[in-house]
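job 3f2a | input accepted
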Amino acid sequence: MQLVADEAPVTGRAAQRRRMALLAYLARSPERRAHRDRLMGLLWTDHAPDAARRLLNESIYVIRRELGPDVLRTEGDTVRLDAAVVCDADLFDRAVVAGDLAGAIGLYAGPLFGSWSVGDAPEFEQWAETERAQFGRRFADVAPRAAAQASGRGDWKQAAAIFARLATEDPDSVIAAEGEARALAMAGEPLQACRRLDQFAERWAVEFGGTPPATVTALRTALVSGAVGAPVAARRVAASAAMVGAAGASPIPTSAAAEHAVAVSPVAARAAERRKRWWWIPLPLALVAVAIVWVSTRQNNEPVVGRASRVAIMSRALASRDTGLAYLREAITEGVTNQLSVNRFSMATSSEVRAMESGRLSLDSLVSLKQLGTLVEFAFEARPSRVRVTARLIDALSREVLSSSVFERPLDDALSIETDLTRFVVDALRQRLRQSVAIRDPIEGQRDATARKLLITAVRSRLDASEVLQNGFALDLEAARNMLLAADSLLQRAALLEPTWDAVLLERARIMRERVRTEPESLQRALLDSAVAMTGAVLARRPEEAEAFELRGMLRMRTALALSDGARDTIALRDADTDLRRALALEPQRAEGWLALSTVQNLRGQAASSLISAQRAVEHDAFLINGQRAYFELFAGALTSAKVDEALQWCRRGRLAYPRDVTFYVCELTAMRERPAQPTDVVSAWRLVARVDSLSQLAERRTTADYKPAYSVVVAAGISARAGNAAMARDAVQRARRMIGSDPSLRLDLTFDEAWVELMLGDRRRAVSLLRQVVAARPPMARIITTAPLFRDIADDVLPSTRAAVPPTR
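job 3f2a | predicted structure (810 res):
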């Protein structure tokens, strides 16, 4: 991001990061105005209110002095940015509204704010990330339309350039890859088009595993056969592909082929004449080949109805930043999704849709990842005392709107729109899929309106409390506890209004499960028993309710973890296993159920089954809540089996799903340490260390010591030593020692990892000495040292007398 005045970059005090952030926030705010309290909380969160107000006033003064007195205007407690200040993102939006899509593409300068950040203003960074994601989605929506306009003019090179720009912003975009390949083929560059699809397929294999979507493979086949592309170019690529298939050699460039055609021998000329005379003989064989290709394509490509039955329900707000509308939108969308999740057709989960809405995943990538065929979109719009929702059923591949309807309700009766939207989706899907569509609770729309509001508010409070607990800050524990108690109080009021509403009982059970994390051990068992009883009451009324079986299985697993009696522990785990299997038999797409079953199987010693269940969890929901453990289990399982490439793939998929989780940057470093050295390892390792450092700074208030930052540094030190950079390695080890300080446990962890660094530096004696210190302090580490590939060559030196006493590892 850059601040420019009079066509020259501003470098004075007005260009200080927080002041630029102030201007950026106002430029993107409705009516370019914001309340002073909002600005203080956004940019000076860590300051006392008086100090924050003083810093804000100083920033306004400096900006006015250096950029002009009218740039910022104050109206009471409101600060407004003058309309004369130009923002390139606004120019992009105006061009789109005016229909000048080519002009909008020309104005797009990359992700909003680029890599620019304030650094120590987490509230602003979170806002900026959201704005960046929304702006990126607008570009991803405009780019294909602009490319279509260019194609309509016959400007295929321009269309290819636009798709290439889209691919730069979203490398996993199937629309970008296929669009660029088609445009290149029509521009007379079919070989380049094939290379583009090959590059996309390679990236897909690394990021997601397996082959790319069937449409990509089918397009490449069409390019090779000449079915797609400019006529002359298509024939050229088909001939080139035939030469490659016959001889295994690279295609002859066009110029070389022309030169080759000049020098034709008499024998070759007679052969060519014979080919002209008997041209029809290969025709039956060609027809048979075409038939085989057609049949195989029909077998490999999914039927239209099968693809159409993969559905995602998403929502967006039209021109509104109202928090109340956002909560209403999320609650209604979640409600419709839950109502339809009992069906056998596949649905994208709420967490996957949230990942797309937050910018972690593009819509195009979600469509490709889940092989979606149908999109359901709700567009919410706040009007004076009313809420309006436009519902659309969309073909996921062509983006054609198949059905649409508009619903409007008074604000105090807004929740009843959920019933209208559910009915619309059921009718539209029934017509598209030609099959019956069920809903979970047919009479939910008839529930008491006050009870429904209480339930939605309680769910929001529980989710907020869970997020607070996830941060792990001790000072926030009491706040989370109070939020959960308040939510439970709301549900008790809802139960008085709707005594037989199962959703209220299940939500109370979830709240009690969360409260276990905030209460002393003396109360935890009672909370778990009460929650199990509530799920049992639901199952007594509805014996086939998968949601209740899943929740009771999770509660029983938590009970097993709280027990100290071995026999009762075993019984609780067995019952948890039974409940979870029953839930998954009823609704196999329940990703959280698979994740919980993986944990139970791990606790019961069923390691192989645990890994399979973890894989099923991430297959059904790549972004499931608390799914970090599933990805890490899969990473660790592959690494233990010496499948380093597979382990690295799971690590990268975990990072894609949880970009703020430092674990998936650390595990990539671990995989780099385990695999053979590569030329780019040192640069990649230190880039990962920098990312670990930046993410770890967000957790400075955590009460428990974290070894991950120091671990990343010492692993990068070993990778540097392996590459021959001894000085860098020794400096990094000293840095890691400073990071852990005097903590005795962390120092022992560092001693273990430092041994590998010394081994890479060639100091075998020092490495052996360090490992002996570890074994003396932690005898169980002897087994790890004897089995770890890192120390295979020195294990006998470390444990010369105790090796025979170490039991074999299965």
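job 3f2a | DSSP finds 37 helices and ten strands in the chain.
job 3f2a | closed
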